Amino acid sequence: MNEKRKINESTVWQIAAHAVMIIGSLLALLPFVLLVIASFTDNQTALINGYSFAPAKWSLEAYKYIASEWGTIGRAYMMTIVVTVVGTVLSLVITSTFAFAVSNDKLPGHKILMFLSIFTMLFNGGIVASYYVYSNIFHIKNTIWALIVPSFLMSPFNVVLVKNYFTNSISPSILEAAKIDGAGVFSVFTKIVLPLSVPILATIGLMTGIGYWNDWTNGLYFLTENGGSQYFTIQIVLNKINENINFLANNSELAAKATQQLPSTTMRMAVAVIGILPVMCAYPFFQKYFVKGITLGGVKE
Prior knowledge:
There is one protein chain. This protein is mostly helical. The chain folds into two domains: 2-39; 61-298, MetI-like fold (Orthogonal Bundle), CATH 1.10.3720. 72% of the residues lie in helices and 0% in strands. Helix 5 (110-122) crosses helix 7 (156-169), helix 8 runs antiparallel to helix 9 (185-196) and helix 12 crosses helix 14 (264-298). The two termini are 41 Å apart.
C-alpha cells in the first residue's frame, strides 16, 4: 500500500514538474512569437493598436525596406558574423591554452596565474580606465579589434570551467602515457586534450559566440559614426535605430530616400528577428554539449 502511494506521489510530482516546465517554456517562447508577428504587422496598425498576436492587418513592409537597403544592414550582418567567428575562435584558443597551463600543478606560479585571472572577476579598472587603455595604448578605437578584444576575448569564468573539465574529466594517466611515448606538450594538448574536451569547448564557444553576437556596448564605446561606421554590427545598427529611427535615412547610401517615411515601429522588430535567427538556428546543434559541459566543468573534486 505504501509502495503504491509512493508511486502515485511520484507520478503527481512528475506531472507537476512537467506542467511547470511547459508553462515556463511557453512564457519564454511567447515574446519571440510576438516579436516575429510584430515584424509582419502593418506599421500604422502597430502604431494605432500596438503589438498583438492577431494583428488587424499584416504587412511585409519592414522586410521589403530591409531588403531594399541591404547594403547597410547586410554589411552590418556580415560584420557581425566575422566578429563572432573570429572572436569566438580566438577566445577558445586563448581560454583553452591558459586553462591547460594552470591545470598543471607542476607549472611554477600556476596558482598566481589563476589568482590573477579570478581577481578580474571581482575587480576591474572601470569604464574610464578601460576606455583609456584600449583607445590610447592599444589604439583599437574605430577598428574591428574594438569589437573583439574587450569583454569576451578571455573570460575568467570560462577559464575556471575549462580548467575543472581538464582536471576532472581527463585522466592524468592518459597524458603521462602520451609523454612516455614521446609526445610533447603541444602534441598532448592538440591530439589528446582538445579531442576529449569537445563538450566544454562547445559550451563556452556557444556562450562566447552569443556574447559577441549580441554585443553592442563595445561599438558604443569605441566606434564612431565618422571613423568606425564600417565596422557597425547588426546589434549596433539596431541600437542606432532604437535611438534614432532616421539613422538609416541619414546614411550616405540612403540619402536619396531620406525624405521617405520609414516603417519605424515594425522595422525594429524585423531587424531584431534577423539578428536572433542565426543564434536560434545554431543552438540545437550545441544543446547536447551544453548541459554536459556546464555540469562537468562546474564540478571540482
